[in-house]
Task: inverse folding
């Protein structure tokens, strides 16, 4: 009761909380989530997964910021894929049927499943080189009739 009265009267003591020993981490900002490529695969994986979903770990590919989502460590032989230059990486990534493979400075691999571009468009990483291709939807005669009935 006494504390409530002190607060109501504006006389409650104000003791600032010390910063040392604090465990609270401030809100992560996108500009602080850039991937540093000079580290082992496990650290890359932890960085990507730690920033998944907000704010999203990112790197520059073809001059634009691309955000990486859904990583996992990959312990296998290097699969076949199409090389993708990533700014700052000592070795190009590989776009494979399962996603984008990036390499740590220890030579081990991290598989990234999804990529998001600056415009907000998200694609499976395996479709990076086919992202611009569009396929037209072709309806069968039955589907065309159904579409007309719906209209």
Result:
């Amino acid at each position: 009761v006494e504390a409530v009265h002190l607060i109501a009267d504006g006389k409650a003591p104000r003791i600032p909380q010390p910063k040392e020993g604090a465990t609270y981490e401030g809100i992560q900002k996108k500009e602080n989530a850039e991937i540093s490529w000079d580290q082992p695969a496990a650290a890359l994986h932890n960085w990507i997964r730690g920033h998944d979903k907000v704010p999203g770990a990112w790197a520059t590919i073809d001059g634009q910021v691309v955000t990486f989502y859904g990583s996992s460590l990959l312990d296998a032989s290097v699969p076949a894929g199409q090389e993708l230059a990533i700014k700052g990486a000592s070795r190009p990534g590989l776009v494979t049927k399962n996603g984008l493979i990036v390499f740590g400075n220890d030579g081990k691999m991290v598989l990234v499943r999804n990529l998001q571009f600056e415009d907000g468009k998200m694609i499976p990483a395996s479709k990076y080189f086919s992202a611009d291709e569009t396929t037209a939807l072709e309806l069968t005669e039955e589907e065309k009739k159904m579409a007309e009935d719906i209209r």
Remarks:
- The chain is about 20% helix and 25% strand.
- The radius of gyration is 24 Å.
- Residues 34 and 58 are 5 Å apart (CA to CA).
- The helical segments are 2-8, 41-50, 141-150.
